[in-house]
Amino acid sequence: MKNWPLWEVFIRSKNGLEHRHCGSLHASDATMALENARDVYTRRMEGVSIWVVPSAQITASNPDDSAELFDPAKDKAYRHPTFYELPDELKHM
Amino acid sequence: MNNNLIQYIYGIADNSLILGQRLGELCGHGPSLETDIAMTNISLDLFGQVRSYFQYAAKLIGGDATEDTIAFLRKEREYKNVLLVEQPNQDFAYSIARQFLFDVYHLLVLEELQNSKDETLSAIAKKSIKEVSYHTRFSSDWIRRLGDGTEESHNRIQTAINDLWIFTDELFHQTDADKAMVTEGIGVDVTLLKSNYFKKVNEILEEATLQIPTIEYFQKGGKQGIHSEHMGYLLAQMQYMQLAYPNMNW
């Protein structure tokens, strides 16, 4: 079981919301990963749908590049849509 | 007070209680974090079912009886679980084999029990079926994985199936209370489940490339309260707190 690959788990907490990353686990294949995710991450009614993705399939940004990737956005407040009035019915923005 | 009904409830609920206790022993000792949580989840499902059965039994008994006195203060021979569920964990293969051999049976019983004339038992069965369907899926998957896995896992699960097979026949025995409850339309006639049980079990064993054991002599006694040597140790641990600190609460 030490050789089981790592999987990333995404849970949708209720219909209409997006799947959100909630953690990772070990499993030998996708079926086992789904069952393990059900047991480890949805015991307290956290979700209505599960996605599992092999961690190895995720391409991550390099922390060393953080300065050039993210810092330039810091002083561009005008990119936030805070200048619009949203109707009250619109949730989860 | 309908003594046959109470004994019938014990016959069903004690299986879940004792298996739940066995699975609880694995808490923190599972082979991986994921399987550890999965098996203790099953344990908690079973205890949840037991609580419903024993709350009902306590109401039937009346007086000072509670779900806790029924669970913790009976003598060994008053527990009516089958021998299969009290067998020790030994290794992961034994825990999975025991689970699998019980789950297939448990699901068949509940599918019939939901048609019981007794509304409480029918309601408990309906609620439990979802849980036990998942237990069956979990244990069947592991039987296939271990059987069709490495040489080591294949040998271990085959040994566990061979050793526990001797307890499968008892699942289909009937006590006097069972027979009385079947006549009243309350209980499940387990003798009718036997062929379907072995069909389902054998199907999965074959998929798992495992040999179906062929033995002629089977163990029995649990349903009459005559248990294997493991039961006393299990009860000593399970009942310790209530015996050392009577009426204690969390």
Automatic annotation (TrEMBL), chain A:
Pfam families for this protein: PaaB (PF06243)
Protein name per Swiss-Prot or TrEMBL: 1,2-phenylacetyl-CoA epoxidase subunit B
Protein species of origin: Flavobacterium chungnamense
Gene that produces this protein: paaB
